[in-house]
Design goal:
This protein has about 600 residues and is an alpha/beta fold. Among the domains are: about 40 residues, Monooxygenase (Up-down Bundle); about 350 residues, Ribonuclease Inhibitor (Leucine-rich repeat, LRR (right-handed beta-alpha superhelix)). Helices cover about 30% and strands about 15% of the residues. The strands form five sheets. A 15-stranded parallel β-sheet has the order 3-4-5-6-8-10-11-12-13-14-15-17-19-21-24, covered by helices on one side. A three-stranded parallel β-sheet has the order 16-18-20. Helix 14 runs parallel beside helix 15. The longest helix has 20 residues. The chain is globular. It starts with 17 loop residues before the first helix and ends with a strand. The N terminus is likely disordered.
């Protein structure tokens, strides 16, 4: 077996590739991929040096400028000696490898060669820096940085150049979205986080249980973490307690956003942080204490379990939250224990910056609660009172107070609202863009309501005592409305919509809506959800949608004469050529989808 000699003479140096002189690797029997005269890759290369030229002449001023700058001035005097020849080849290979990188010194990809890296001394191998498998280093960086974590781990096993590039990508990563497998989750998380010292945003989908050990691993591996989101699958259990969560928040002084699911084992917590601005906690249950010492908190979302034996004192929680978090802008609370007293505690806090208020599933919230909200917060942009007991009178108060600010109104599962209240809201709120009135105009005799099928709690008893005509009609004309939800409104038999900006319409389980009493004048409509409707109604929806699309296409079938005197219908061959590609794409994008399944 042939082994490389410790000293390479000038007469035999042409039979070895330059890389062999650089790192003393075993000779490649398949031959060199580089030119023996100038050192450039052979593929697509025409050498400008004749065969009589000595290989050592590459280090002369005829080489590239970068080779000259790297070459030692004293090496010329040592050229006759074998070690000096090896030294010249080393500098030559490095100079040629970094030619393209050095010419892009002002480009954002400068850190590919390690000159701008926070971890110097980790330069890529010179043989693989310029080209790895024929791919420039900059292109390789752009391709690999778009891969998911699993693909990035697989790419590291391709070659040394790819492995070094993936290492740099891991070190430069600032955001990580990862699904944690059920087995070996702690070791897996530790190995991944060890690669990302600069991580600031992290989102984990847990398929295994979450405990304090996992939280401690995240806290130790990510000292600069700013945003963390933990979601759990149906089989995973979140075992983190309130004390452990409080210590984590207190230790992470850079943390600004915390979102966590499955918080049924907290028991109670005290969160103290001067940097936290967003907090989402779901599946809360029977909390003994809830203390928020977060002066910069701007958004909070608390979702409680829908169990009747929940003992959380929401009134005390709302009072303390209003006093300790004066900068709150968005509040979302979902609990069956919401009441008028909780609303009074929130309104007493006088949160001047509040813009979005969502109090969901509070059947004890009435028109008096709406009056309290309207008197304290007159600049709301979003109001969600789904599942409450407000009536058309409450809608009237909302329209009187928020005509110039409210753009999203959600009143689903409110059994005391009629179609008259919905029409009044759309007529009096000119900025309205989203409205959800699902399960409001319902048929009390309907046995297969969506609420029963999903297993949610029963509607309030006021549904059976509601006085209205069995079937109602709804007429809406609005210039800015974009999304309208009427899911489960089985009490509607006539619907007329004149909304030029409407792009999403939900008619799921509108079983009593007659096809001949349906009129959709919505040219921007993109999605119509019609599962659970009659076949005749689905056919009427598709017919009206196709008619509106045909009218939109027909406007391109006419052509004006050259003198601009009148419009005449152009032949099909001419009209098809006259339609611009952008207009053609616009028509295709505006095609409406009727979703049945």
């Amino acid at each position: 077996m042939h082994h490389p000699q410790p000293h390479i003479s000038s007469s035999t140096s042409t039979s070895f590739p330059a890389a062999a002189a650089f790192d003393f690797k075993l000779a490649k029997r398949r031959g060199s991929y580089n030119c023996g005269r100038c050192g450039l890759p052979k593929k697509g290369h025409v050498c400008h040096l004749d065969s009589s030229t000595n290989p050592t002449s590459i280090s002369t001023p005829t080489s590239s400028p970068s080779a000259v700058t790297v070459e030692n001035s004293s090496s010329a005097s040592r050229l006759p000696h074998a070690p000096a020849i090896r030294q010249s080849y080393t500098h030559l290979r490095r100079a040629l490898s970094f030619d393209d990188i050095e010419t892009r010194a002002d480009s954002p990809e400068r850190d590919l060669d390690g000159s701008n890296s926070p971890y110097p001394g980790t330069d890529l191998d010179p043989d693989n820096e310029m080209i790895s498998g024929g791919l420039p280093a900059g292109c390789l960086w752009e391709v690999l940085r778009r891969l998911p974590p699993a693909g990035l781990l697989a790419a590291a096993s391709v070659c040394k150049g790819w492995r070094e590039t993936t290492k740099r990508l891991w070190r430069a990563a600032e955001e990580l979205r990862l699904m944690v497998p059920p087995r070996g989750q702690l070791r897996f998380i530790g190995s991944v986080l060890k690669k990302c010292p600069s991580l600031v945003r992290m989102s984990l989908k847990m398929e295994s249980d979450v405990d304090a050990t996992m939280l401690a691993c995240i806290a130790f591996s990510c000292p600069n973490l700013e945003s963390m989101e933990i979601s759990t699958s149906n089989t995973a259990v979140n075992r983190i307690t309130g004390d452990e969560l409080g210590r984590f928040v207190a230790d992470k002084r850079c943390l600004t956003s915390l979102k966590m699911e499955g918080c049924s084992n907290l028991g109670g917590f005290v969160l103290s942080s001067s940097s936290l601005s967003t907090l989402w906690l779901s599946d809360l249950y029977s909390l003994s204490k809830m203390v928020f010492n977060c002066p910069n908190l701007k958004e909070i979302s608390l979702e409680f379990s829908r169990q009747e034996n929940d003992t959380t004192d929401l009134t005390t929680m709302a009072d303390g939250m209003g006093r300790s978090c004066p900068r709150l802008k968005n509040i979302h609370i979902a609990s069956v224990r919401l009441s008028h007293a909780v609303v009074l505690s929130l309104t007493a806090a006088n949160l001047r910056g509040l813009r979005m208020l969502s109090l969901v599933l509070g059947s004890e919230i009435t028109d008096a609660s709406v009056a309290a909200i309207a008197s304290s917060y007159s600049k709301l942009e979003l109001l969600d009172l789904s599942g409450s007991s407000i009536s058309d009178s409450g809608i009237g108060m909302i329209c009187n107070v928020f005509p110039n600010t409210l753009s999203r109104l959600l009143l689903a599962l409110c059994p005391n609202i009629t179609s008259s209240g919905i029409q009044f809201a759309t007529a009096q709120l000119p900025l309205l863009e989203l409205m959800d009135c699902g399960m409001t105009v319902c048929d009390p005799d309907s046995l297969n309501s969506p609420c029963d099928e999903s297993g949610d709690n029963e509607l309030p008893n006021a549904l059976n005592n509601k006085l209205y005509l069995m079937y109602q009609k709804l007429i809406i004309k609005h210039s800015r409305l974009k999304k309208l939800s009427l899911w489960g409104c089985s009490g509607l038999d006539a619907l007329c919509l004149n909304c030029p900006e409407l792009n999403d319409l939900n008619l799921i389980s509108c079983k009593n809506l007659h096809p001949e009493r349906l009129l959709l004048q919505c040219p921007s409509l993109q999605n119509v959800h019609a599962s659970g409707c009659q076949e005749s109604l689905i056919g009427a929806i598709k017919g009206q949608v196709s008619d509106s699309l045909a009218s939109l296409e027909n406007q391109y079938q006419c052509k004006r004469l050259a003198d601009g005197s009148k419009r005449v219908r152009a032949p099909d061959c001419l009209s098809q050529e006259a339609i611009d590609d952008k207009k053609r794409r616009k028509v295709v994008e505006q095609q409406c989808k009727v979703l049945v399944d």
